[in-house]
Amino acid sequence: MNRFAELLDRLVLTPSRNGKLTLLTDYFRTVEDPDRGLALAAITGDLHIAAVKPAMLRTLVTERMDPVLFGYSYDYVGDLAETVSLVWPQTPGNIPNREPTLSEVVAKLQAASRSDGPKVLAGLLDSAGISARFAIIKLVTGGLRIGVSARLAKQALAGFGKVDVTEIEELWHGLSPPYTALFAWLEGKAEKPRSTAMALFRPVMLSNPVGDGDLEKLDPADYAAEWKWDGIRVQAVAEGGVRRLYSRTGDDVSGAFPDLADAMHFSATLDGELLVGDPREATGTFSDLQQRLNRKTVTAKMQQQYPAFMRCYDVLQIGDEDLRALPFRERRGRLEIFVKTLDPSRFDLSPFVEFSDWHALEELRRVALHPIIEGVMLKRWDSAYVAGRPKGPWFKWKRDPHTVDAVLMYAQRGHGKRSSFYSDYTFGVWSGPEGEEELVPVGKAYFGFTDEELRQIDKYVRDNTVERFGPVRSVRADRDNGLVLEVAFEGLNRSTRHKSGVAMRFPRVSRLRWDKPANEADRIETLQALLDR
Amino acid sequence: MRASDLLHPRPEGLYCPPGDFFIDPVRPVNRALVTHGHSDHARSGHRSVLATQQTLDIMGLRYGEDFAGTTQAARLGETIDLDGVSVSFHPAGHVLGSAQISVEHQGTRIVASGDYKRQKDATCAPFEPIRCDVFITEATFGLPVFRHPPDTEEIARLLKSAAQFPERSHLVGAYALGKAQRVMRLLRDAGYDKPLYIHGALAKLSEYYQSQGIDLGQLEPATVESGGRDDFASAIVVGPPSAFADRWARRFPDPISCFASGWMRIRQRAKQGGVELPLIISDHADWDELTATIKQTGAEEIWVTHGREEALVRWCELEGIAARPLHLVGYEDEGD
Question: Is the ipTM of this complex over 0.95?
Answer without folding.
Answer: no
